[in-house]
Specification:
The radius of gyration is 18 Å and the shape is globular. By secondary structure, the protein is an alpha/beta fold. The N terminus is likely disordered. It holds the Pfam family ATP_bind_1. InterPro entries: Gliding_Motility_GTPase (IPR052705), Gpn (IPR004130), P-loop_NTPase (IPR027417). This is ATP/GTP-binding protein. Keywords: GTP-binding, Hydrolase, Nucleotide-binding.
Length: about 200
């Protein structure tokens, strides 16, 4: 940079920053997803699972899980020179849901991660974003060894509106997660355009 301008003579680009939430049930892969794409070292607030939490933290299906998010995960990814996403992973357990209202403040949209082994665990997240009219995309996290169900079957099980995108993803894979995040931005823009059109007509 020379005197605030790039060496090619172009003015520096001030990127637009957007906030995206990553929600879903306990152990669905939210921390993994944020870590897979973040270009900075992700902020994590994980603590070891304890015997005291055993009655309220259902680990069936994720028996190997030894930690849990108690506040949030935070990461950042630059999709384009002029577009940066800040990712906020929400805690999955019901006792931490009081934090969701603060985390969702100013969010453009959300990813609801779903695990077909524990599909009911993402019902609360779907309901939360529907009630608050926050655009969201459902990402079905395809774990190794998990049964693959047709998208239509998953959509019916979640009772999703027709305009809510549902995609298969791998929370460990950077490119797969990037596609989901691009889908959130596009879906949110489409919803905003519809609202504007409805107001002007």
């Amino acid at each position: 940079m020379i005197f605030g301008r790039s060496e090619r003579g172009k003015p520096p680009v001030e990127p637009v920053t957007l906030k995206i939430l990553v929600a879903g049930g306990f152990g669905v892969g939210k921390t993994t997803l944020v870590g897979a794409v973040s270009e900075i070292r992700p902020l994590r607030t994980e603590e070891l699972l304890t015997e005291a939490g055993r009655p309220v933290d259902d680990t069936s299906g994720v028996e190997a899980k030894s930690t849990t998010t108690v506040a949030m995960d935070f990461g950042r990814i630059t999709l384009r020179e002029d577009l940066v996403l800040y990712l906020f992973g929400t805690p999955g357990q019901e006792r931490f849901w009081f934090m969701w209202d603060e985390l969702s403040e100013g969010a453009l949209g959300a990813v609801v991660l779903a695990d077909t082994r524990r599909l009911e665990d993402c019902f609360a997240a779907v309901d939360y974003f529907e009630r608050r009219a926050i655009p969201f995309v459902v990402g079905v996290n395809c774990f190794e060894g998990s049964v693959r169900y047709p998208e239509d079957a998953v959509r019916r099980a979640l009772d999703l509106d027709d305009d809510v995108p549902l995609v298969l993803t791998d929370a460990r894979d950077r490119e797969s997660v990037k596609e989901v995040l691009v889908g959130v931005v596009q879906h949110a823009m489409t919803q905003a355009a519809r609202r504007c059109s409805a107001v002007t007509t």
